[in-house]
Amino acid sequence: SPEIKETCLFDDQSQCNRLNTTNNFNFSEDVNVSLLLRIDSNPDPKVMLNSSFLAIQNSTKGNGYIEYIYILPHLKCEDSGEFTIRAINGIANGDTKKVNLTILCKPRNVTTESRKIETKVGSAENIVMYVVSSPLPTVEWCRVTGFDWIVNTDIYDYRYEIMSEIQVRSELDFGVYGITICNQEGCIDDNITLKPRDKPEAPQNLSVESVTFVSVNLSWIAGFNGGYNQTFKVLFKTTDTDIWNTTTIHTHEIKTGSVMHVTLDQLKPDTSYEVMVLSTNIHGNRNASLEFKTKVKLDLSSSSKLASNSWLVAICIGCVISILLVVIIILLVFKNKTQKDKRNDSSALDNRALTSTNDHSEIVPGMERYVDMPTLKRASSTHEDNSLVHVVPETSNIRETPTDEGGLVNMAGLRNGK
What we know:
By secondary structure, this protein is an alpha+beta fold. The protein is built from two helices and 25 strands.
């Protein structure tokens, strides 16, 4: 009966120059491997590997044994496990030997429930995938998620469960997430795509831009559309009724962050209104609301009367100011004229006094012996209305004679000895 002495697996026969007795063998699935057995058998045995007959490549006889080289079939890492080698030659039951074959391969056959996941903002998605790999793989995100991968061994040593998480905090968290899976045999890439599937976000920053007694201008910022086209509707009513009026906003493309405007007219003056803006897609709608009040309508007759009164007051004020300016100007002119007249009167008096003095200083011819001019004294008295100048001789033999209208002294009497 055959007896298996030693075993060896190799892709290069030189690796088996020193045979060992281990029963564990590792090799890559891309490599063609041969099995070398030292069997003591007569006649020559047949060798089976898990019930499959192996083809003999060649055989050589040694000292008391025969070396048989068998070509193994192409094995994959899914075939890794315990193998049974059986040698028989028709005598008795033959011989059986067990070996553990670990077939190495780079990661492949990644499976998951879905590579395209529809979700919404504010959710967390658990990602679970399965991969064939030998040995154990490492997994990394190609895009930052804030979460690591957990790798667990599945039922078999060559199959692994990998798990991680993605949190969707905003619209920016949707899209493709790349995954890199590696081991010592190589790497592969895979990906997960997150698609939005939700109602649109509510309009943001809804506000009143301006309001009159018959209209109002509203504005808001468009939020994320939830992954589908969204439309806007504006509903409004007075606060004392339940009847809503509706206006639809027509636009070709609404992007996140777009500023929307709408004008509501034909409103009632001095009335409170409630407004609701709805953002809608195929999955539903969200809304934002506010209240406002229109202005009071002005009475045109009162306005005209007020305007007339304002004009009248303005005219009166203008007239008063004009009169004051005229009075001030007249006073200034009169004052300047009075000062000028005073200066002129003073100059005229001085000139008359000088002229009168010169007239009385003339001596009638023949009087030089009676009058000594250097001894004359000037006596003057000046008044605002009239001024007289008298020349008085110092000698007592000459008496004063009244002047006539021409202002000349009649000296004829003196000559006659009167």
